[in-house]
Write a structure and sequence with these properties.
about 30% helix; about 350 residues; elongated; alpha+beta; 3 domains
Amino acid sequence: MKKAVCIPLCIILSILFPAHLWAEGGFELSLFAPEKDVKTGDELTVKVRISSQEALGKVSAVISYDASLLDFQSGDSASGSNGIININHTAGENTAAELSLDFTASSSGTAVINVVNCYATNTQGVESDLGSTYASFEISQQNQVTQNQHDTTTQSNVPSQGVLVDLKIDKGTLIPPFMYSIHEYSVTVPYEVDKVEVEGKTASQTDRIWYTGNPECVVGNNVRTITVTDINNVETVYRINILRLEKNTEQTQAVAQTGAVSQDNKTDTGSKNEAVPKAEQKDSLKEKLMPALYIALIVLVVALIIVVIWIHSRISRKKDKKEDKEEKSRKKRSRIKVTNTNEKNRSKKK
């Protein structure tokens, strides 16, 4: 009951009062949701404002949105799709920058837009982390009957072969939700997630399925593809863009993916988490140990070469000594033989 009351209250507050926060260095980050009632098919604008007590230099930000509810059209100094927008803006020494992002509402529900992380530099090139913020608003259905009929028709016309009928990932959430006719998806995971497994189910047992991409994820965008080939060798390719966030990025992305707003998901952008994640400790330990392991390996190889050379020299010396001893023995026997022959000759002469 408390959660049911909390969600509408958060939505009303986010519409009446824009989301904003102050960051270190005198910067302010604000996110303005649409002021009008939004219905499916409507065009809407979301504004991001960065202001400072001194002249701004450059501004960069990563913005996430629910691609199952919104279609990104264009924006100021912005590019992206499938739930992720990148902003790279030069403020031109102004003390404020206001950037507009244009969307089209594609489905009804609670739309949440996150500024995942935002950085700004002053004219001296000093960078400040402005943290994260979010805004939300409701999208209502334009024509409920028509839309439901369309959804039923779409779901019932699944081909009997050559497509996926199910797509699962073990981390994160697919945006938009899986449908056989949608061939591109996005997933956002925190820095602590370094591996994402993908599994697809084909419509027919005769379909062949082929995966590309690495389950291990690097920081940034990672692409996985699933190719389904039917008995007629017709291919259908599904593409999954997996965004692994950088270290210390706040976990507000989960709010955008689930479409639910909760006060529990808010974090204090001015504070830093002092507990080092286990994955970060593991990476740090690996970085420290790898040079030592390489050095130890080189030392072992050099030591092995030295031992082989030493053994070879010992064997050679023993062989030389043996040959010298045999040579001396032959010479000695030869002298004894010559002496005996001479004595016999002298005795015969007498």
